[in-house]
Amino acid sequence: MTQWKLPENLQDLLPAQAKKLETYRRQLLDLYENSGYQFIMPSLLEYEDSLNAHGKDLNLDTFKVVDQLSGKMMGVTSDLTTQASRMDAYLANTKTENKFCYAGPVIRTKASQDQSRELYQVGIEYYGNAKIDADKEVVLTLIKSLKLLNINNIIIDINHLDIYLALKQQLTLSAIDEVKLADAVMLKDKQAVQQILKKQNDQASINSVLQLLELYGDKNTLNDLEKLFKNLKVISQCLGVVKELIQLIEQAGATVSLDFADIRGYQYHTGLIFSAYSPQFKSVIAQGGRYDNLNEAIGQQRPATGFSLDLRYLINYL
């Protein structure tokens, strides 16, 4: 090893890449500012207590260091969304809306597929509006962002977490089994789901979870969803939200797909979530959705939705 060798899954940006990233960063922030989003710059460090409040996934993703002044454990920024939420909590009351945008580096303990552990996270967050209008604005801004980056053939994959949560509530699960079940559902692993739920006495509820794994594809999947879970009260509400969003996405020139077993981020996401894909890229290019209960641990239940993308990853393929 030489003194110039970087740790695994980290890389420098050479002049051409750095210039490209900076150019797109400015253009994206101009787009967001023109849409009413205020620029924020979250701190690079936060105490571990706030990380734990946002779920184990965020905590595991975060590098830890000891604060030499207080002796407390701190985390290096791994997700600007949660930090934006903290800033909203400082500024907001229950009647105000806040619209933030940000662009900055974050670092994670492990790398996603084909990605660096150092991300350049760019995104927007919309606080204080629980209506579908806020979700529509965020998704439309995401599509505009990707088009600004000259990304074509955009696919927006949608899910509504309330459907999975309604099915889970019909079961009696330990905290450990809840985590195991979520992992199995995301992997669409039927055998693992059956193994986890074998102690359940309600076969109908078990079958419902297994059926959820098959609910993915184009918008015709909504018909299957409606037939399979017509007795769930939450279904009609979820369908209404999803159908409105589908119409908007198609009008904006993107393609829609659905995957009701995609429950990533369920630890702090609520309701509508979405991911963006394109044939130009090997993996997901942006993610977002609702997270109305993120600050529940500090006694604040605040409507919130947004998205983020990793500009460092995107410029490597553009």
The averaged pLDDT comes out at: 89
Number of structural domains:
2
Measure the end-to-end span. 31 Å
Briefly note the structural class of the backbone.
alpha+beta
Q: Regarding CATH, which class of the largest domain? A: Alpha Beta
Task: Enumerate how many helices there are, as a single number.
Answer: 12
Largest sheet: 9 strands, mixed
CATH topological fold name of the largest domain: BirA Bifunctional Protein, domain 2
**CATH homologous superfamily assignment of the largest domain:** Bira Bifunctional Protein, Domain 2
Widest sheet: strand ordering: 1-5-6-12-11-10-7-9-8
Q: What are the low-pLDDT stretches, counting only 5+ consecutive residues below 50?
A: none
* N to C succession of SSEs: HEEHHEEHEEHEHHHHEHHEEEEH
Description:
Strand 10 (272-277) and strand 11 (286-290) form a beta hairpin. The chain has helices at 15-34, 48-52, 56-61, 80-91, 132-148, 161-169, 175-186, 190-196, 203-212, 221-228, 234-251, 311-315; strands at 38-39, 45-47, 64-66, 73-76, 98-107, 118-127, 155-160, 216-217, 255-259, 272-277, 286-290, 304-310. Helix 5 packs parallel to helix 11 and helix 7 runs antiparallel to helix 8. The model has no long low-confidence stretch (mean pLDDT 89). It has 2 domains: 1-154 and 302-318, Bira Bifunctional Protein, Domain 2 (BirA Bifunctional Protein, domain 2, 2-Layer Sandwich); 155-277, Bira Bifunctional Protein, Domain 2 (BirA Bifunctional Protein, domain 2), CATH 3.30.930.10. The protein starts with 14 loop residues before the first helix and ends with a helix. It is built from 12 helices and 12 strands. By secondary structure, the chain is of the alpha+beta class. The strands form 2 sheets. It has a 9-stranded mixed sheet, with helices on both faces. The chain has a 3-stranded antiparallel sheet with strand order 2-4-3.
